[in-house]
Amino acid sequence: MILTKLAKQPRICHLARCYTVPSSTSQPEPSKNAPASAVTKSKEKPKRKKRKYNIKKVLDEFRTLSENAFEPVQLTQAEVMPAEARRNEVNIEMLPKSLYQKIFGCDEGQPLSANKIKQAREHLEKHELLEKVDPPLPEINFPLPPLQGQNIEDHFLKISEEQCGAYRTLMKKLTSATVPDIPSTWSTSVGWTKYMTGRPPEAVPFPDEDCLVFDIEECMGAGLGPTLAVAFAPDAWYCWVSAPLAQVLQGGGIPPSKDDFSPLDLINLETAPDCEIIPPEGSKPKVIVAHNASFDRARVKEQYWLEPSQTRFVDTMSMHICVSGVSSFQKSQLLHKSVANNEEDSILQINVPHGEEWRERSSLNNLNDVHKLYCGGKGLDKSTRDIFVTGTLLDVAMKFQESVSYCASDVRATLEVAQKLWPLFLERFPHPATFAGMLEMSAAYLPVSEAWTKYIAASNNKFEEIEVQIKNTLCAAARQACSLLREEKYKNDPWLWDLDWSVQELKLKKSATKGADTEWDEEDRNDPSAGKFKYLAAQRAFMPARVPLLPGYPAWYRDLCTRSDSTDWVPGPTEISPSMQVTPKLLRLSWEGFPLHKVKGQGWGFLIPGRPPSHLDETDDVAPPVDEIFKICKKYAAVIPDIQLSTNEIADEVERKISKADYFAAKKKKEKGITPPEWYKGTGLPCPDVALPGVWFQRMPHPGGAQLKVGNPLSKDFITRISEGTLRGEGEPGQVLDLSNTGSYWKNNRERIETQKVVWLNNNALPKGIRKNYKLGAILPQIVVAGTLTRRAVERTWLTASNAESQRIGSELRAMVHAPPGYHLVGADVDSQELWLAALLGDASYAGVHGATAFGWRTLQGKKSLGTDLHSATAKAAGASRQHAKIMNYARIYGAGQNFAQQLLKRFCPDMSEEQCRKAAVNTLTLTKGKRMYTIPAKAFKALFEKNLVTAEHKSNDKVFCTSLGVKFGTINEAGEILLTKSELDMLRGFEKLSVVKWPQSACAKVRSVWQGGTESAMFNRLEEIANSPYPATPFLGARLSRALEPKSIGTYNFLTTRVNWVVQSSAVDFLHLMLVSMRWLLGDVPNLRFVLSFHDEVRYLVPSSKRYDAALALHATNLLVRAFCARRVGIHDLPHSVAFFSGVEVDKAMRKDATSECITPSNPEGMTKTYKIPQGETLDVYDAVQKAGSDPFKKLKQKFSIYDFCGVHQEFNGDLNK
Asked: What's one GO-annotated cellular component (predicted)?
């Protein structure tokens, strides 16, 4: 048996490390001669040997077994690849034999350390995971095409180069060009004009060069699309003038603005102005370089056609962010031009070397600042830009030459930036998959139908209905509140007691005014009942010259009304709105059950009754009704909020907090006055300076941080708190909160959605089968393909769109992207993408096998039903729900620490005290990350031993060293490293200083901080190792960290959590780029294949309906290949079966999260099938996809190639690997 042959070896051959497990769930029976390190835990632990003081032996004792020699065992194919399920050393089921051979062949990798395998198994046994073995997954006959190269890494290198090589060549050609002088005079002719040195201007159909630098200017107020454009090619300048502008230049009138655009209204870059389809010879590769290229692309005709163009847009802004981007807090510092030094608002003070040198290596993202960063100079003259922002077409026409020259100067600046940036980009992002993936993302395409306008109309109608309902409810609440004026009942109201209840009296004249009109109006005079009320008309003579507004009504109510003599007068409190300060009081809002109150200078907060009297109490006549507030608070019951956050939202929130926490140090402001009651366990922020009699005032927590005050509790920042139940109202007025929640999505996003640039294709541009009965439009989302420090794509509407929610108007936005007849949308969500990548790094560094750590094992094999999955384990440790634990887990791998975990727990569990939240956060982090320790290499102790300053400790069971002063310290971890606590490290440093140990000889000079004892310690140690390297780079594609955050710019230990966050999220971007490259390779022969969009962890494609199942299978294959690539990059030449394929691929006619969802919302109450005629789609696992795909879906990829077969013989052959 294989394990028998391994018994004599100190290390394990990589290919031999998987062994057979029977189909039942019982544990496999190992050979009697198998070593305990590879099969089962040793029954008896070896006794600790006493150490003798011998420097050589002491150093040898900490040397790991990894240096032992290894001689590979010759094994037969049958021994290594048994017929049944393959499992690795920690019982994780691996790829089936057939797939393993196709992907890895005999690509063995480095042999494993038996010592590390033993360490991993003991670690899993400690957490009771090793013995939990799942039944084998079903075998699958997957038709994987042959790899292009000798291994999976060669494969991706080759196919990436094939996809982006032509575009990289064009970029080199363009950035090598010499910029000729800008023409002094520009033609006013409509369309394109070409300018070459020594030649007269020439009208041309379009620029026929294959590489251009491009800039568009649009008169925003005209509503007529692009106004003019300038392009530069290596040997010519080009200028494009729109037909409306040419009409004005020739003396004609200004055309009216347009609501609907067709491709013919836009700029043509590949075909004649009147052409509406790709010519028969097809599109050729073409590069367009622009700054914020998505803006320019959205105004190019050919980009909207259903048949994809081969033109790709390269964004210099995205390249700049990749090379020199900053964190969100660094960006705020650049915006303010100086570092905030207000000690009251600071959170972490750090030592930034040499006066913040990162500022010299980065800038804001606008073209002016980017140009100054890379090219120097005083900056660009942007004064002419105002003509396009605030002016009209006539203004542009009057300054035509100046306007075009301004556009040309931006083109020249963009080229100069590209010439500096392009070499830096290639140096810092060497793998072609990065550039290929960015090119693919720049071609995003969203097809829409007439359902788009129907959706907007339905959302607006429902929103207006909600607004009227809110207005009526608020008016009724205001009128009802006026009744409290009688007998001064308002003084006992927990909300309205501090409003201005003063009234104005109506003072009549003692004698009637002579000549006053005492008759009814003509309309009323003919009324039969006019005579009965004639005496009222007579009272006009006694009215004062200026009648006060609403005499007898309180002042706060009068502020909500208009005067009767105004032209648009309507009776009642018509000026009231949710943004007014009186509204939360009229709605009787409470936070955690306590009535809201606003204090000048503190913003909104709430009142807690029971505060004892104090000499600090305010002595105003108006005092809070403490007894009534007590009655309100008796209704208080802690609500466990149901918080739903996407991974995007978690990542953004963590990044905002840690980037600031990395910059400033925590400094707590000393509180004075009487502290809040111990029984209060909510989230309020104490304000001891506010001394209201009988009550404590606590500020509402602002989502942006404790330093911010809440200006309006009904703003979008608190919408989630309404749905959670933390913020709620009393009685019928409280229904306004539910209504506000219903309209919140549309209110916050309506402008962006309505202003989406939809271009409707003419019939001639549509496939013949749908020209008569289908209206096809397209939206090109304004994506910045690398918009953040972590290179995540950024877009304000589509990438932030939530899934359809039953109580949110317009939240079905994503489902309004519809595939036209003859096409389908195919896509998938990457299951736990970032968790798996982080676990992979930890497992690889810990033992070199999948699932070696508890974190990795739970990610791969944990079961929610058994409570062994990652989120269930965290929920148990934190005392929170599994959903809340999921948020905490993602926040932790993004870099959040104890403070952030404590804030989340307080938000999730309002009934927990601060101390309980602190303990739960500490327990959770101790279980997961472990404890922060400091490791010193054994060799670093040499000087201390030689000077007899340190000896080996023989008597202590815990500590392994002893100073000459008798102080015991240090422990040994599994890898034989010396570990010190922070106090022990400080002690040793002081001891070295006292003993005059020089720095080169100092053990403390070689100290390295590590996490120890947690389920995720190995993973965080690896992340920090990458983040602290001189030039941090992702382990998968070698993508470098921004220059502004490299250690030489900010110091080795500064911004560590931000860099850890970058490692995780930037690795996920690598994963996405690899997916895009793989899909393009697998489906490159599919006509009209279009990349639609990629969200944080999902991707969507538009494919012909006849190829939809092939595309679904290709997505499964892509997941398999990309994960195999990532595993091999970190030294693991195998892949777990559980993560090899997507759990499901969506095949649908709409871009919804779930292919079977009806997306029912207030604006879509009848669902997708009835309202929009969109049938339910399909969700296909890999077995379904194999069954439904064609007999040979990747036939064109099966060309001549070379691999190493299983026995290591190099072969070349054609056809299927199975043959």
From this structure: gamma DNA polymerase complex
C-alpha to C-alpha distance for 1127 and 1142, rounded to whole angstroms: 17
Task: Report the distance separating Cα 473 and Cα 742, nearest Å.
Answer: 15
Cα(870)–Cα(857) distance, rounded to whole angstroms? Answer: 9
Active site residue 565: no
The answer to whether the beta carbons of residues 1191 and 141 sit under 8 Å apart is: no
- Of 101 and 34, which is predicted with more confidence? 101
User: What mean pLDDT comes out for the span 318-347?
Assistant: 69
Tell me the pLDDT band of 1020, cut-offs 50, 70 and 90. very high
Predicted local confidence at residue 966, as pLDDT:
77
If 0-12 CB within 10 Å is exposed, 13-18 middle and 19+ buried, where does residue 1105 land? Answer: middle
pLDDT at 411 over 90: yes
Tokens 């040309």, residue?
A: 408
**DSSP string computed for 187-216:** ---SEEEEE-TTS--EEESS---SEEEEEE
Rounded to an integer, what distance in angstroms lies between the CA atom of residue 607 and that of residue 663? Answer: 34
Would you state the pLDDT for residue 50? 44
Q: Are 855 and 1015 in contact (CB under 8 A)?
A: yes
Indicate the SS3 state at residue 610: coil
Q: What is the rounded end-to-end Cα distance, in angstroms, of the chain?
A: 29
Long-range residue pairs from 939-944, CB within 8 A, at least 24 positions apart, any chain: 939/59, 940/1002, 940/1003, 940/1005, 940/1006, 941/58, 941/59, 941/978, 941/1003, 942/55, 942/59, 943/997, 943/1001, 943/1002, 943/1003, 944/992, 944/997, 944/1003
Grade residue 312 by pLDDT with cuts at 50, 70 and 90. very high
Predicted confidence (pLDDT) at residue 159 exceeds the cutoff of 60:
yes
Phi, psi of 202 (to 5 degrees): -135, 125
Say if strands 685-686 and 695-699 run parallel, antiparallel, or are unpaired: antiparallel
Q: Among 150-159, 168-177, 907-916, 1155-1164, where is mean pLDDT lowest?
A: 907-916
Q: Residue 359: which pLDDT band, with cuts at 50, 70 and 90? A: confident
In single-letter form, the type of residue at position 56 comes to: K
On whether the CB atoms of residues 816 and 448 are closer than 8 A, the answer is yes
Within 13 Å and on the Cβ side, how many CA atoms surround 676?
20
Of 824, 819, 826, nearest in space to 774 by CA: 819
Per-residue confidence (pLDDT) for residue 1206, from 0 to 100: 29
Please choose, from the candidates 1023, 1112, 1009, 1124, the residue with its C-alpha nearest in 3D space to the C-alpha of residue 1067: 1023
The pLDDT assigned to 16 comes to 40
What is the chain's percent helix, strand, coil content, to nearest 5?
40, 15, 45
pLDDT number for residue 7:
34
Residue 1018 dihedral angles phi and psi, to the nearest 5°: -60, -40
pLDDT bucket at 614, cuts 50 / 70 / 90: low
Range from 234-238, 618-622, 752-756, 797-801 carrying the lowest mean pLDDT: 618-622
Q: Read off the amino acid at residue 430.
A: P
Structure token digits, residue 866: 């058994």
- Those residues whose C-beta lies under 8 Å from the C-beta of residue 1132, and which sit 6 or more positions away, are 109, 840, 843, 844, 848, 849, 850
Q: Which residues pair with 818 in a beta bridge?
A: 1150
> Which one, of 234, 249, 229, 239, lies nearest residue 183 by Cα?
239
Instruction: Catalytic residue, from 107, 134, 208, 215: name it.
Output: 215
Q: Helices marked H in 601-760 — which ranges?
A: 626-633, 647-661, 719-724, 735-754
- 420 phi and psi, to 5 degrees? -85, -40
Helix count (H) and strand count (E) of the chain? 38, 36
* Edge-to-edge strand list for the sheet holding 236-241: 202-204, 191-195, 236-241, 228-233, 211-217, 286-290, 311-315
Strands 211-217 and 286-290: parallel
